[in-house]
Amino acid sequence: MSRHWLYLGFAIFLAAMFAPCAHASADRVSFMHDIDISDAEEADSAVCFLCSIRINGKLNGDAVAFLGGIRVNGEINGDAVSFLGDVGMGDQSRIGGDCVVFGGPVHRSGNAAIDGDTVDIPFIIIMLPFIFVALLIYGIIALVRRRRYAAYPMPPPPLR
Q: pTM of the full predicted structure?
């Protein structure tokens, strides 16, 4: 009898966990497929992996792009974050929060406005630790190989 209560409790737990939400979210999440918000559309947030985000309408939340760019011709009320991509702002566009770009430029044209801070970290600064580690490994390998062959600076003379 106690197993039936355990199974019933587990079934209720799963049903509560996977029950659909009561409201429809206007968030946009995409993987390898560009997100396009047209002039008449409005969305809450946009997150894109390996793709780009084009905003011509209004975005009430944040825009985040990993390995892709963000093109703003409308309005973002939150932050804009691009990792290994760029942020392009058209004429009369606005970002209400911060604009953070890792490994790409920020292009502003006309009367584009960013209300928060703008952080632009160049790609070379992201790559400096990797370059340092690669040079360190190369140096260690070169030292080990040089010591291995140090006893034989020249080949031995031929035998007669």
A: 0.68
